[in-house]
Design goal:
Elements lengths: L1 H56 L3 E2 L5 H4 L2 H14 L5 H6 L2 H11 L14 E2 L11 H9 L7 E2 L2 E2 L14 E3 L10 H14 L8 H20 L15 H6 L14 E3 L12 E2 L4 E2 H13 L10 H13 L12 H4 L9
Antiparallel strand pairs: 1-2, 3-4, 5-6, 7-8
């Protein structure tokens, strides 16, 4: 009886095997069909993207690869950042076409940073020669803040709001020099920015040329950003002034053996301090820890997965890289000199 029962079970299993196999095959077939359909949709999407880029290529010149963060208003920057972080989807063709060229550049390059290749190669993205970059609506407030090392008071309707994260009193110091080794000349990369501004102002018609004025405004925005966050590396009381930009460039020794001498510099090398986890930099809206982590990240020269960063972190990261001429989606291409000022004494 037991033998018969075992035999019947065995027979039943044998009889059911072809049926199970058929079901698996059918399920696998449906899966392949779905994948094929999805793949075909992707191909069509890529074709439309490439067609759009090819159309742009006919009338556009090469887009600067590192200035996206300084050309985009916060609204556009936030839109792209959220698209990566929260929805994790690709933009529709209509969304992609509505973006300006810098927004597209940010999207494509951020997608290519350890996230796989985007639909369109970032090298193929172009920008029109006479394109007017979108400036932040609060540019005047931004400039005033960068000129001041004191946080402004937040008031609305006569009420002062208390924030969860207390603002840091002035820019955060990431390190310091001994009194004997305090820098007497500006850092090499700041010199390059001042030189860029001076070269624009050498043009005979820059006062009346809208494109030159916009280019100068973008460069000077980077100079203020550099001065605010890297004040420890500047000569005492150094300030940027348009009228003295050319003299600053002429007096700079470009044939020095080394671009940087940081032998007397001591990085912070820790997160210690009262409420260090809560202190917030008003301008970047980041905590001291976030800023230190980003500095350390750039100093490592290992491209991060940008989709794992918050919008404010992405903007600060991209602007840091832009000031030093670093491709934020390819940190590996940066030199030791490009990242040496970002040394905070910590290992990433």
């Amino acid at each position: 009886m037991t033998k018969n029962m075992d035999s019947s079970k065995w027979l039943a299993s044998m009889l059911s095997f072809p049926e199970n196999k058929k079901k698996k095959k059918s399920s696998s077939k449906r899966k392949r069909k779905r994948e094929s359909k999805r793949s075909q949709e992707d191909v069509e999407y890529f074709k439309e993207m490439l067609k759009l880029s090819s159309k742009e290529l006919k009338e556009m010149s090469q887009l600067s690869c590192i200035d996206d963060a300084f050309h985009l208003p916060w609204e556009s920057f936030f839109q792209v950042a959220v698209l990566f972080i929260e929805s994790r989807r690709s933009p529709t063709l209509n969304e992609f076409m509505e973006w300006d060229v810098y927004t597209r550049a940010l999207y494509l390059k951020a997608r290519s940073s350890r996230e796989g290749k985007p639909p369109v190669s970032y090298e193929s993205l172009k920008g029109p020669k006479n394109m007017e970059p979108i400036e932040p609506s609060s540019e005047e407030e931004e400039d005033q803040h960068m000129e001041s090392t004191q946080p402004s008071t937040k008031e609305e309707g006569g009420l002062i709001f208390d924030w969860v994260m207390p603002y840091v009193d002035g820019p955060i110091k990431f390190g310091s020099y001994s009194s004997e080794t305090k820098p007497t000349v500006i850092p090499h990369h700041l010199y390059l920015l001042v030189k860029e501004a001076a070269d624009i102002m050498k043009r005979s018609d820059w006062h009346s040329n809208p494109n030159d004025l916009k280019d100068l405004a973008t460069v000077e925005k980077k100079i203020r950003f550099f001065r605010y966050y890297f004040f420890s590396h500047l000569p005492t009381d150094w300030k940027y002034k348009r009228d003295y930009a050319s003299k600053e460039v002429e007096s700079y020794e470009t044939n020095r053996e080394t671009k940087y001498n940081m032998s007397g510099y001591t990085p912070i090398n820790s997160f210690r301090g009262e409420d260090v986890e809560l202190e917030c930099d008003e301008y970047s809206s980041l905590s001291r820890q976030d800023m230190i982590a980003i500095m350390c990240m750039i100093h490592s020269r290992e491209t991060p997965a940008i989709s794992k960063m918050t919008p404010h972190q992405i903007q600060f990261y991209c602007r840091m890289c832009s000031c030093f001429g670093i491709q934020y989606h390819r940190l590996e291409d940066a030199s030791e000199d490009d990242v040496c000022l970002m040394n905070v004494g910590l290992h990433s």
